[in-house]
Amino acid sequence: MSALWSVGAGLLLLLLWVRHRGLEAVLVHHRWVFVCLFLLPLSILFDIYYQLRAWAVWRLHSAPRQHAQRVRHIQEQVREWKKEGSKRYMCTGRPGWLTVSLRVGKYKKTHKNIMINLMDVLEVDSERQVVRVEPLVSMGQLTAYLNPMGWTIPVVPELDDLTVGGLIMGTGIESSSHIYGLFQHTCVAYELVLADGSLVRCSPTENSDLFYAVPWSCGTLGFLVAAEIKMIPAKKYVKIHYEPVRGLQKICEKFTEESKKKENSFVEGLMYSLDEAVIMTGVLTDEAEQSKINRIGNYYKPWFFKHVEKYLKADRTGVEYIPSRHYYHRHTRSIFWELQDIIPFGNNPVFRYLFGWMVPPKISLLKLTQGEAIRKLYEQHHVVQDMLVPMKSLEKSIQTFHVDLNVYPIWLCPFILPNNPGMVHPKGNEAELYVDIGAYGEPKSKQFEARASMRQMEKFVRSVHGFQMLYADCYMTREEFWDMFDGSLYHKLREQMNCKDAFPEVYDKICKAARH
């Protein structure tokens, strides 16, 4: 009883403090209070619900049977839209706050919302080494489903909540991408409901133009209802080697050298300043030295980027064996390093042991509850950007990031970019090695101003024939956007498939200059 009185008294004091400071002031300057008391418990309930649902679907084997019925319902909605006179653009009915992108899609309020309830694994074909899934299947859900069967997918983008549909219609990357390319390059077929309500399957040999045009199109060519993704055999551990490197030139040379080695299953770099980094390489293995196993995904373990930093501070190399699924989702608990700005004491051992099992809060819930004040604050004083540039431009790119943003850590992830048709491909006629430079946090550059600084960054990326990931804020004009991306196939298909009255152009859907 005394414990209940203590909790009650504590809540009363908290409410009085919130009333004194004002709710908006607390949410902006002490956001951790709201996150810890409300969003973390709510995130746990979200996870429990989706895990129970996935388990029930698996036990009842209901996903394949219900899939065809759900797709027919989507087709019926599209045909109904046509009967109504095609007066508005269409979009998915999924609420904007549920997506991992930081943007809140205002177009949801004005477009015709097509409800798409497709979130199940449909089929695992071990002979073809292909898994067929619905678009709302998440990375956490997919690896949990495949790993016990001895399978995984070649590219597992970091965060648990990233969905297959988002990774195809946008893009996705992982430290294995120097071998397999972007997430889209591991897909072998897509199924879409088009603007006329028809269901179409596309692959490199069947409706190939559509297959190559879908990635990066952000849902502006049709509604994705299923995808087939390559599988590879899973192994128990990733043997990871940590090597601190100092000096920008040496960092770029070492990172490029390791990225070209196909014997490395994984390559990743974390830069902690302009001239300090840790380069990590990993190989899949079923054998491990027991004394060197690090289950980094356990809730009480240090955040991965903080763990890596220890090797830099100690100026020593190291080798560990990380269970494969822990490795695939190594940045999830700290949302890379974004969570340190939301819960400043989140990596404290006491917090990790007592409350680490509740971390991270759902990104979707953070968006839903951020409010206009926080949104504007983040927009002006925070960046979340991934720029994809040729590996040969890495050193110049990092220097540009340092001058314009000065955000650390910086994530480096190499990938091979094939010369396929579509919006994103190398300038030449052959595949080329690229690198994703990820900047997430508060810029320390004194001259940082969100719009001007990002336009400067975008101009630089265009100059080296690079690309900007479209989940983030984009400030380009329409001409600049189509200078960065190859729209020839995309525009041809929008014309052929009568998309212009059905879906907005991708630029109008994602760029700030078009949305404001």
| Beta-strand content | 15-25%
Mean of pLDDT: 89
Query: What is the CATH first-level class name of the domain at 65-233?
Result: Alpha Beta
Query: Low-confidence runs (pLDDT<50, min 5 residues)?
Result: none
- What is the architecture of the domain at 65-233 at the second tier of CATH? 2-Layer Sandwich
Number of helices, counting only DSSP H or I runs of 4 residues or more: 21
The value of Rg in angstroms is 23 Å
CATH fold description of the domain at 65-233: Uridine Diphospho-n-acetylenolpyruvylglucosamine Reductase, domain 3
How helical, in percent, are the residues? 40-55%
Strand count, sense and closure of the main sheet? 8 strands, antiparallel
Record field, number of beta strands:
17
InterPro entries: Diminuto-like, FAD-bd_PCMH, FAD-bd_PCMH-like_sf, FAD-bd_PCMH_sub2, Oxid_FAD_bind_N
Domain FAD-binding PCMH-type: 60-234
Enzyme class: oxidoreductase
Subcellular location: Endoplasmic reticulum membrane; Golgi apparatus membrane
